[in-house]
């Protein structure tokens, strides 16, 4: 051991070791990316399997069909007439409540109104729900069937609501349910379910959400139906992303896949991969789409609101041209509910952290987390390296110590910490400004405000750098320390975030990876590539490419972000403005910095 | 004279700034105090403000506050807090009390720093004494430390203990050992563990007496131990009168001694004792307590020349190894750290320690969230991060010890100044 230690000491003083970190950190980045690209290979991903034996998916006969088809048509007729007459939310609920009452279910309504004049967030409406008390249970557990009146795209979910009503009538006839079944119809796909789940768990948000007059047992699972299309379909699309990238237990998805794909013989798709093929490209594409969705953290359907409360939920959407009809869709739901009904405790056996790369292939957290951690580690490595470097004497020869060669590297110069700490603190604190602005701008002004911010944001580093040079004229050492602290914070935030939302951490990490190589150059040219990877520029560029329409769609994205922040507790804006943006700002300051001559250090 | 006035004005401005910051946080984010009160990192079973409210409610309804097994704090808090208007209706009075306590602690710290005891005690004067921070800077570092602010906002009752400990040290340095003993008795009455600070505090008080008054050490010790015992019995007597039984001894100190409340915290005890078979419990309780108290003797002997160092190191050790630690204890240790600015250049792991502690600060809440709220992690996640936290803090304590000893060593061996040394 002593020999090893002395070896380590000798190594510590070797000047070559200090040249290493940038390469090491680049290596971390490259390995991180390569790791990600390896995941879709057969050797690195696994086939999905059902962990919870109680689920027994697809093991029961489903009886939905036959005369239920006539019932469905009748309800469809009612729903159509409501939809065609453009009935108001209360009028729809009156009718639905009448139907539920006719089936013999207890119904209740809940009002909600998310409204703040400052932020332009406005969503209000009335949820209606009916509870089928468990014939074989004691009202301690419940499962939910949701159909939003309007789906995520704003289309009227005619078949979905009609199917929900038919299933309510059908489920009522069975005596095998051991959990309460809640049938929930919400006016929209985001605020409505959120309000209902919040109220179910007594989170009333200071009266913005009405309390629920009737409740069942603790929620165990939820299935949402998004069936707005008409005619026959080929496959079912399973949407599973929750708010902030939280995912439902993998067993639930596996059950749906096994019921729809295995038992009913229809296709199953995920992540909007409408064509079903299983090659490397498709798997990678599916995985990357999943990661992007997870990283953005926005709600992807009515199910998203349930997941933060640890209620596993998915949304089922039929798609494609085929020969499956509404009854088949009903049987998929029936089968899923029969499986959920078997559960003895909450879904916990299978994975909560996974990336799906096809309906039957996944990687679990142990396999994919290292890539995000490597990306985060690259920042920490550079931070440590810069810290060590900042302690090295600048000049080659320290007066008075000329002959002593070996001593030089060990001599640590005093570090001047106050200015670097101050700069990093101010940059972090400034992040609150865009966060506040974009969450308090009226919806109509978002695009304008964003354009102004984009311009200001490009000018800001230059102004701040001029002020910094004029007033403090930081030395090389201080620039090194500024970079070091900023990278340390970034690495720290990202590795913490990677445990909560892997994809977001990886995306932010990759986009800010050039920041770990910034050096004071004093040249404006260097700030151009940095300006392109600034958070607002990235936002503008990606929306322009994806939605091809200049700056206009940015307004929608920001509006959605403000809504997500205000209503659904989505923290992506915080990460962007308080983690990524300050790091970018500091990186840019450093690049623009012209280090002054070092003052004489006594 | 003019200079004196300026410093006074500057300090007053610092205190006003700190108070305004705290009151602003209280008022701008009204949800923040309750959020922090609920955090396991801030509130432990023996310092939680929520539990204090429960005890207060029972006390005000003439029920023993220790019924129900929720309240584990000293009985004298109850009359103090029932004098204040209820914190549910007029929270501002509670806030003002906590802000005032923080400022009092900072004031004691300022006096400790300005005395220069940290760089030059009776028996040892550091060759690096020129390089030190003024009391103003040290008080500012304490008052604007995020951990201190979080503790204040979370209204953890450990701020009272912190205040009492700092006043005990400052009085001992001021040459008033009797007052120091009184303050220490209050601290140990409130949370018991400060009693372990008695030996170094006696040394400090003894060293700081004017040479003429320095009587025999034995007489000094016995006199002051008697004072501590006297104050303790008075406080216990008052507690008995308030609660009407001796039950409080078991519910406050008994809980700390036997760790009967296993609510998670940032310390190392809870997980260990959850996992343990009951038959080993008493043995390991004894071992853990013995471990905690064994540092006192060793450090007092080894660093006899600098009793303030012993106090600082002990506070750091308590922040890691006591049964119910929280970030309040760390903030107390971090308050004392800057007194040793002169040995900072001798420390070897400053950056690593800062990085580890900060990583743990962010990962801790994330893992706690995964365990408790998201349900996708388990207790091992949080325990792992408390281990990292403990590791970071123990590195910090070790590094400070190393720097202090090296500073001493360089006085004995001037030829070794600036040479690399190896620990074997």
TrEMBL record, chain A:
List GO terms (cellular component aspect).
GPI-anchor transamidase complex
Gene3D superfamilies the record matches = Zn peptidases (3.40.630.10)
Tell me the Pfam families matching this sequence: Gaa1 (PF04114)
Locate the transmembrane regions by residue number. Answer: 20-41, 365-388, 417-437, 449-468, 488-512, 524-546, 574-592
> What keywords are annotated for this sequence in UniProt?
Membrane, Transmembrane, Transmembrane helix
Q: What InterPro entries does its record include?
A: Gaa1
Q: Which residues form a coiled coil?
A: none
**Membrane as a keyword?**
yes
Q: Which domain of life is it from?
A: Eukaryota
What is one GO biological process annotated to this record? attachment of GPI anchor to protein
PANTHER family registered for this protein in UniProt: GLYCOSYLPHOSPHATIDYLINOSITOL ANCHOR ATTACHMENT 1 PROTEIN
Name this protein carries in UniProt: GPI transamidase component GAA1
TrEMBL record, chain B:
Transmembrane region(s): 12-32, 133-156, 176-204, 225-248, 268-291, 303-321, 351-374, 380-405
Q: Where in the cell is it found?
A: Endoplasmic reticulum membrane
Q: Which GO terms describe its biological process?
A: attachment of GPI anchor to protein; GPI anchor biosynthetic process
Superkingdom of source = Eukaryota
Family of this protein: Belongs to the PIGU family.
Could you tell me which pathway this protein works in? Glycolipid biosynthesis; glycosylphosphatidylinositol-anchor biosynthesis
Which UniProt keywords are present, listed alphabetically? Endoplasmic reticulum, GPI-anchor biosynthesis, Membrane, Transmembrane, Transmembrane helix
Give any Gene Ontology cellular component: GPI-anchor transamidase complex
Q: Name one Pfam family in it.
A: PIG-U
What coarse category fits the chief subcellular location reported for this protein?
A: endoplasmic reticulum
Q: Tell me how this protein sits in the membrane.
A: Multi-pass membrane protein
Q: Please state what the protein is called.
A: PIG-U-domain-containing protein
PANTHER family given for it?
GPI TRANSAMIDASE COMPONENT PIG-U, PHOSPHATIDYLINOSITOL GLYCAN ANCHOR BIOSYNTHESIS CLASS U PROTEIN
């Amino acid at each position: 051991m002593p020999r090893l230690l002395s070896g380590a000491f000798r190594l510590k003083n070797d000047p070559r070791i200090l040249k290493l970190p940038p390469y090491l950190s680049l290596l971390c980045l490259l390995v991180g990316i390569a790791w990600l690209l390896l995941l879709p290979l057969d050797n690195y991903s696994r086939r999905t399997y059902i962990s919870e034996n109680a689920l027994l998916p697809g093991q029961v006969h489903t009886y939905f069909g036959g005369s239920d088809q006539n019932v469905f048509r009748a309800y469809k007729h009612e729903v159509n007439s409501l939809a065609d007459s453009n009935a108001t939310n209360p009028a729809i609920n009156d009718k639905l409540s009448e139907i539920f009452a006719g089936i013999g279910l207890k119904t209740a309504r809940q009002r909600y109104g998310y409204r703040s004049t400052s932020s332009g967030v406005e969503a209000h409406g009335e949820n209606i729900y009916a509870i089928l008390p468990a014939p074989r249970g004691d009202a301690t557990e419940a499962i939910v069937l949701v159909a939003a009146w309007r789906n995520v795209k704003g289309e009227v979910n005619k078949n979905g609501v009609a199917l929900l009503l038919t299933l309510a009538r059908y489920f009522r006839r069975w005596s095998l349910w051991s959990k309460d079944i809640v049938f929930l119809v919400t006016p929209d796909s985001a605020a409505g379910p959120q309000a209902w789940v919040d109220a179910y768990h007594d989170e009333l948000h200071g009266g913005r959400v009405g309390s629920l007059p009737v409740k069942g047992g603790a929620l165990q699972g939820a299935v949402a139906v998004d069936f707005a299309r008409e005619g026959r379909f080929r496959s079912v699309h399973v949407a599973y992303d929750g708010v902030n990238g939280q995912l439902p237990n993998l067993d639930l998805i596996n059950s749906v896949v096994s019921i729809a794909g295995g038992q009913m013989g229809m296709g199953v798709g995920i992540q909007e991969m409408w064509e079903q093929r299983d090659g490397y490209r498709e798997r990678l594409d599916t995985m990357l789409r999943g990661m992007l969705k997870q990283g953005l953290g926005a709600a992807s359907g009515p199910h998203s609101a349930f997941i933060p409360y640890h209620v596993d939920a998915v949304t089922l959407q039929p798609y494609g041209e085929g020969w499956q009809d509404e009854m088949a869709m009903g049987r998929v739901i029936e089968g899923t509910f029969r499986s959920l009904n078997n559960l003895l405790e909450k879904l916990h056996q299978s994975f909560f952290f996974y990336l799906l790369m096809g309906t039957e292939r996944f990687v679990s957290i142990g396999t994919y987390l290292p890539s995000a951690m490597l990306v985060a580690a690259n920042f920490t490595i550079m931070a440590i390296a810069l810290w060590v470097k900042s302690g090295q004497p600048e000049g080659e020869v320290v007066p008075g110590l000329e002959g002593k060669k070996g001593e030089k590297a060990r001599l640590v110069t005093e570090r001047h910490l106050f200015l670097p700490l101050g700069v990093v603190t101010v940059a972090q604190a400034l992040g609150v400004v865009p966060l506040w602005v974009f969450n308090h701008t009226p919806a109509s002004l978002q695009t304008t405000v964003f354009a102004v911010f984009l311009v200001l944001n490009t000018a800001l580093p230059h102004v701040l750098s001029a002020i910094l040079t004029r007033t403090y004229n930081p030395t090389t050492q201080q620039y090194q320390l500024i970079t070091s602290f900023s990278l340390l914070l970034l690495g720290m935030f990202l590795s913490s975030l990677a445990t909560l939302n892997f994809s977001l951490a990886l995306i932010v990490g990759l986009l800010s990876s050039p920041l770990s190589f910034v050096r004071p150059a004093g040249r404006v040219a260097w700030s151009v590539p940095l300006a392109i990877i600034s958070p607002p520029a990235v936002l503008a560029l990606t929306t322009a490419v994806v939605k091809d329409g200049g700056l206009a769609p940015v307004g929608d994205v920001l509006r959605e972000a403000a809504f997500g922040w205000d209503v659904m507790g989505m923290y992506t804006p915080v990460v962007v403005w308080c983690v990524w943006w300050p790091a970018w700002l500091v990186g840019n300051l450093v690049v623009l910095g012209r280090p002054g001559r070092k003052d004489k250090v006594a | 004279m003019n200079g004196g006035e300026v410093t006074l004005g500057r300090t007053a401005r610092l205190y006003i700034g700190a108070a305004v910051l705290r009151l602003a946080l209280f008022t701008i984010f009204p949800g923040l105090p309750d959020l922090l009160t609920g955090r396991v990192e801030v509130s432990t079973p023996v310092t939680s403000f929520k539990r204090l409210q429960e005890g207060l409610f029972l006390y005000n309804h003439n029920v023993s506050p220790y019924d129900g097994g929720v309240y584990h704090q000293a009985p004298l808090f109850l009359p103090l807090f029932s004098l204040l208007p209820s914190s549910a209706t007029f929270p501002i009075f509670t806030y003002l009390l906590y802000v005032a306590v923080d400022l009092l602690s900072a004031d004691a710290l300022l006096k400790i720093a300005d005395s220069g005891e940290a760089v030059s005690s009776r028996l040892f004067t550091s060759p690096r004494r020129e390089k030190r921070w003024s009391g103003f800077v040290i008080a500012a570092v304490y008052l604007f430390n995020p951990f201190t602010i979080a503790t204040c906002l979370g209204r953890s009752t450990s701020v009272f203990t912190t205040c009492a400990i700092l006043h005990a040290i400052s009085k001992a340095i001021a040459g008033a050992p009797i007052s120091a003993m009184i303050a220490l008795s209050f601290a140990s009455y409130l949370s018991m563990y400060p009693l372990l600070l008695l030996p170094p505090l006696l040394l400090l008080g003894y060293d700081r007496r004017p040479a003429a008054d320095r009587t025999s050490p034995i007489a000094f010790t016995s006199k002051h131990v008697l004072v501590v015992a006297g104050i303790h019995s008075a406080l216990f007597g008052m507690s008995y009168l308030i609660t009407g039984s001796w039950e409080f001894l078991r519910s406050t100190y008994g809980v700390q001694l036997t760790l009967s409340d296993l609510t998670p915290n940032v310390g190392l005890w809870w997980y260990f004792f959850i996992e343990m078979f009951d038959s080993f419990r008493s043995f390991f309780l004894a071992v853990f307590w013995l471990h905690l108290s064994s540092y006192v003797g060793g450090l007092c002997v080894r660093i006899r020349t600098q009793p303030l160092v012993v106090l600082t190191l002990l506070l750091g050790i308590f922040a890691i190894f006591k049964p119910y630690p929280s970030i309040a204890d760390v903030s107390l240790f971090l308050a004392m750290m800057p007194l040793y600015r002169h040995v900072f250049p001798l420390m070897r792991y400053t950056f690593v320690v800062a990085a580890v502690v900060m990583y743990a600060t962010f990962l801790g809440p994330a893992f706690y969230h995964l365990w408790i709220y998201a349900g996708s992690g388990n207790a091992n996640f949080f325990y792992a991060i408390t281990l990292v936290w403990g590791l970071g803090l123990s590195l910090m304590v070790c590094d400070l010890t190393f720097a202090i000893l090296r500073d001493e060593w360089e006085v004995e061996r001037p030829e070794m100044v600036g040479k690399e040394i190896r620990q074997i």
